[in-house]
Structures are given as C-alpha cells and as structure tokens.
Design goal:
Elements (H helix, E strand, L loop, with lengths): L2 H12 L6 H18 L4 H21 L6 E6 L9 H15 L2 E5 L5 H11 L4 E6 L13 E5 L2 H10 L4 E3 L4 H15 L8 E3 L2 H15 L13 E3 L3 H9 L7
Parallel strand pairs: 1-2, 1-5, 2-3, 3-4, 5-6, 6-7
Length: about 250
C-alpha cells in the first residue's frame, strides 16, 4: 500500500460515514498508534507494541470463521511420548470431544498437545494449534488443521482464554502450571466468566492440591470458595458429559 492509499484509508477510518462502535474502535486504535509517535517511544517498546497488535489482529482474523463454534483448550507436557498413558488419554478425549462438536485448542507442540490435536483431527474436528516461538523444544505438530504462531506468551494466553468454554489440564510442567494459574486467577478476580477448569490425573496433581488446601487456605491467602474453581476428573465420559452440558458459547 503506497502513501496515497494509506492516507485515503486513514481518512475513511477517521471520518466514517457511520458512527457505530466498530468505527469508533478503529479510530481509537489509530489514535493510540499516533500517540506512540508523539511519545517518541524507545525502539524496543515500539517493536513489542507493533508485534503484539499484529499477533492479536491475525489471531482474531483466523478465529473469526469459527467464532460461534464450541471450543476448549487442552494443556499438558510437551515431553510425553505416544506410549505414555496420558498421551493416549488426551488423544481419546479429544476424539470424543470432536465427535460431540467441540473444537480443540492446544499449544500446537508435541506431547499432550500433539495427542489432543491428533485425536480431534482424526475424528474430523477442528484441531487448533497455537504454537509459540522458542529457541528449544517447541515445534509445531503435524495434526493441527488450524495453526497460528506467536512470539509472545501473553498474546497466546489471551487466545487460549478468549475462545475457550473450558480448560482441561493434564500433567505438565511450568508452562502447564502457568496456563492453569492464569485461568484460576482470572476466574477468581472476576475478569472472565467462570468456566470449568478440569485437572486430569489425581495422583499427579495430589501434591499441588494438598498444598493449596494445607497452605494457601490455611494462611487465608485464598477463600474456601476458590477451591471450587478447580475440578478433578479422570474419566473421559465424565469430562465429555461435563463439557457438552455447558450452555454458554464463549466468543
């Protein structure tokens, strides 16, 4: 787009014929960008702002055709192998969810993420992979049929939350704990509508749940009602029944 076309588009957006909310938001986005120029921001700050806006914009465009479809996010370790019981559980679970019209969103990598994408795709469902650019470990799996790539974790995390009607959390490491904590915090602080946060693997999560009850609750750093945000289920049929029974479609 040359300078003349850019100016014409700016005039169209800044002086819209129809003063609806969408037009006002377009105008605010442009004015915020111009505010960066007026503030003479540091180059690194400008790179972060530019990339974040681009990632949010691209992701919203990719998700737009599927906006009204029921979707959930599945998390777990990237390091488990296909012979692992939790890999096989995730694959079967995602397949059953897909057969019930539930699209599956994962981090797009290996392990549990690969298993969930594989199961959903094999069952003919939407299998979304939100990959993250990392210097090691993470590379896109072959089973996601809708793919995005992110540089920033915070942009990726917004997409996991924004389009999910539930979180299913299988055994994993720091990344899995990060996603779990994000959802719990947003629900606890009423930043998002409550949705099921389901832990799979009672034995694996026992230490965490014991610590939450014996330490966080004991010192009154959380409320008794906060415990109810987290559910524990190890049966595929029970999980699928819970998810299918959710009436709200997150958009």
């Amino acid at each position: 787009m040359d300078a003349e076309e850019t100016l014409a588009l700016l005039r169209e957006v800044l002086t819209p014929k129809k003063q609806d909310l969408r037009s006002l938001l377009y105008r605010e986005i442009i004015l915020n960008a111009l505010g960066c120029a007026r503030g003479e921001l540091d180059i690194l700050d400008l790179k972060v702002i530019n990339r974040a806006v681009a990632e949010f914009s691209h992701a919203a465009c990719v998700f737009k055709p599927y906006r009204r479809e029921r979707k959930l996010s599945i998390f777990g370790s990237a390091r488990v192998k296909p012979e692992d019981a939790y890999y096989q559980f995730a694959e079967r679970l995602a397949g059953q969810l897909a057969k019930n019209g539930i699209s599956v969103i994962t981090g797009g990598g290996g392990g549990i993420m690969e298993a969930a994408n594989k199961g959903a795709a094999a069952a003919g469902g939407k299998s979304v992979g939100l990959n993250i650019e990392l210097p090691m470990e993470q590379k896109p799996n072959d089973y996601a049929n809708v793919r995005l790539s992110f540089r920033y974790f915070f942009c990726r995390k917004v997409m996991f939350i924004k389009y999910a009607l539930a979180y299913i959390v299988l055994p994993g490491g720091f990344g899995t704990l990060d996603e779990l904590s994000e959802a719990i915090t947003l629900i606890q602080t009423h930043k998002i509508k409550p949705f099921p946060v389901i832990l799979v693997g009672r034995d694996y999560w026992k230490g965490l749940m014991d610590w939450i009850n014996s330490t966080l609750l004991k010192y009154e750093h959380i409320s008794p009602s906060d415990i109810g945000i987290i559910r524990q289920m190890d049966d595929i049929d029970e999980i699928v029944k819970t998810i299918v029974g959710i009436r709200d479609i997150t958009t």
